[in-house]
Design brief:
globular, four-stranded antiparallel beta sheet
Length: 132
């Protein structure tokens, strides 16, 4: 990871640098304590194109064999719309979010999803999502 990216604001939208926020999870220095924190870290992983983290944080029953990033796509902003359960005291949870992006040629778009998360081997993982 470049020093420039580490010092930049975290893509997840929280008021911290990438290094101190989602970067810690991507580097394996910390684990997500909540489903929302995992959701934010996964958005950031898409933004910085960290395929290894995305695979690791995906439930083995539903994860794809690999992650392909669309050339020219930039994930720009994450809005958390709702969250149910998913605290350190739960074993499952949902996070509804809207992720804004720009595609090749500057075309803007958004992905609106309700994601399901569960604990697997003690860690929060993404199970599946339903597009809204």
């Amino acid at each position: 990871m470049s020093k420039r990216r580490d010092a930049a604001p975290c893509p997840c939208g929280l008021p911290a640098s990438y290094q101190d926020c989602c970067g810690r999870l991507h580097r394996g220095e910390a684990q997500a304590a909540t489903a929302e924190q995992l959701m934010r870290s996964r958005f950031s992983a898409f933004a910085v194109q960290d395929a290894a983290y995305l695979i690791k944080s995906w439930h083995p029953a539903t994860r794809p064999p690999s992650i392909d990033f669309e050339p020219g796509m930039r994930w720009e902003r994450l809005e958390i719309l709702d969250a149910t359960e998913g605290t350190p005291f739960h074993t499952k949870g949902t996070v509804e979010f809207r992720a804004s992006y720009s595609a090749k040629g500057g075309q803007a778009g958004a992905l609106h999803e309700v994601s399901r998360f569960v604990r697997h081997d003690g860690a929060w993982v993404y199970l599946k999502g339903i597009l809204q």
